[in-house]
Write a structure and sequence with these properties.
By secondary structure, the chain is mainly alpha-helical. Helices cover 72% and strands 0% of the residues. The chain has a domain of 37 residues.
């Protein structure tokens, strides 16, 4: 059995905040999920690039 689990986020909003969100994003749950997934993908891509740059810098320093 794996350790992969679904997670749930609960956010407290006033009725006015909720109505404003739904007015802008008629599918607020999908919109939030998409934003989170975009952020994670961007973070992973940035992390990969940062790791590659550090690795290259480390190799260059050793060669010097």
């Amino acid at each position: 059995m794996g350790t992969e689990r679904d997670r749930v986020i609960s956010i407290s909003l006033s009725e006015a905040e909720w109505q404003a969100l739904v007015a802008r994003h008629p599918q607020p749950v999908n919109w939030l999920r998409d934003r989170i997934r975009e952020d994670v993908r961007t973070s992973i891509s940035t992390s990969d690039v940062t790791s590659a740059v550090r690795r290259d810098a480390s190799l260059s320093a050793r060669a010097s």
